[in-house]
Amino acid sequence: MTIVTRFPPSPTGFMHIGTARTGLFNWLYAKHHKGKMRFRIEDTDRARHSEAAVDAIINGLKWLEIDWDGEIISQYACGPRHTEIAHELVKRGEAYYCYCSPEELEVMRESAKTEGRLSFYDRRWRDSKATPPAGVKPVIRIKAPLSGEVIVNDKVQGEVKLNAEQLDDFIILRSDGVPTYMLAVVVDDHDMGVTHVIRGDDHFNNTFRQNIIYKAMNWTIPVYAHLPLILGPDGAKLSKRHGATSVEEYRDMGYLPEAMRNYLLRLCWSHGDDEIISTEQAIEWFDFDGIGKSPARFDFDKLNFINAHYMKLADNKRLVDLSMNILKLSGHPYSPNTEKYLLSAMDELKTRAKNLAALIEDARIYWITGEISMDEKALANYDEAGKAIVKKIAEALKTLTSFDVATIETTCKSIAESEGVKLGKVMMPLRAALTGSTSSPSLFHAIEILGQEEVLKRIQN
């Protein structure tokens, strides 16, 4: 049997971290078993549907370097097939037409609330022989089991039981002819040959209901694996107040896709004590046994640690290209030589930053252009005494015929000795003059990379 998983997001907004993890787990499970992962857009909610959201989901998967098999399926486009199955279920005696008015349903709802019942619909049309009222468009309801227990054997949560009395005869086709999500999911999964459904455990209650449709159609029920939720660091549901929650935000902050895959993998899945897990290892090792039942907490420090690891391994030219994209998005003016400078400095820069946004900020000395504005701390170092030292440095640097790290360092140390001060008293005002701040990568190395002409021009400005 070929394993077939599926990734079925709803295009109503950005691609949430939890959605990305679901996609990753489906992809890894399929890859591990040399199977397939299908991609379906669950776009039946036309009021909330957004093509921009569809693009964001597709781009998010591509950025994470997660591919899929076959064409992208639109659930909305499969509507006629869903409707066909709804009527087929009626023919089989597994579903029925319900003609209840909104007013009748409201009375039932209030009665159930008063009596403390979970299911409010009284099934009055389930086996009714009454003549349907004229002019009323019915809904189609499934016939749920009336007694006993329904059981789901889940690969993560284990055996889960539900009293059948908690299930209602839910609607599978609305009175306007629109299929419900509950029906559409089952029909699509069956038609796409899905063998394994891997999704968040917030869908677990749907599973009991969807299995009713599978059984009514004599279709094979897929294997289920319901993943624990992702919580914020404080144990509350992950939300904007905790920080970035979408894949796009992490991409724009300069996290690497391989780091994001590694981190998402560790959100409720483990392989011994391993933290750094390559994609090749993840495909080899991934299975349901490694998934825990407890919710995972999003740990920003751990993400930064993992991303820093992958940045150190990354190709310098690739990091420069990605850094330039972030710099362009920032809107800051930058030197035409920025790319060249960054490439020369990347061996050092990539060991200092947790993500590319931080790298760009750290690398300010390589991209600032025009008149340099100083922050408050830099100005404090660039007082009259500091200016005098920088002037002497400029005069000394101007005479150098060899402009390398060793010569630059020797020159600055010589000026410090002649002034009777420690080297820091020379370097701090120089750093302020060249960067407008009090922090930068190794200044001697940076001065060599910038070159004699650029350094003297900045000091002059």
Describe the structure concisely.
With 461 residues, the chain is mostly helical. The chain has 20 helices and 12 strands. Helices cover 48% and strands 11% of the residues.
Characterise the protein shown here:
This protein has 461 residues and is mainly α. The chain folds into three domains: 1-69 and 228-313, 3-Layer(aba) Sandwich (Rossmann fold); 78-227, Rossmann fold; 376-460, Arc Repressor Mutant, subunit A. It is 48% helix and 11% strand. It contains 20 helices and twelve strands. It has helices spanning 17-32, 51-63, 79-91, 102-115, 181-191, 204-216, 247-252, 257-265, 279-285, 300-313, 316-330, 338-349, 356-362, 364-367, 376-381, 384-398, 405-419, 423-435, 443-450, 452-460, and strands at 4-7, 36-41, 73-74, 95-98, 139-142, 149-154, 158-163, 171-173, 196-200, 223-227, 230-231, 296-297. It has a three-stranded parallel β-sheet. Strands 4-5-8 form a three-stranded antiparallel β-sheet. A two-stranded antiparallel ribbon has the order 6-7. The longest helix is centred in the first third of the chain and has 16 residues, at 17-32. It is elongated, with a radius of gyration of 31 Å.
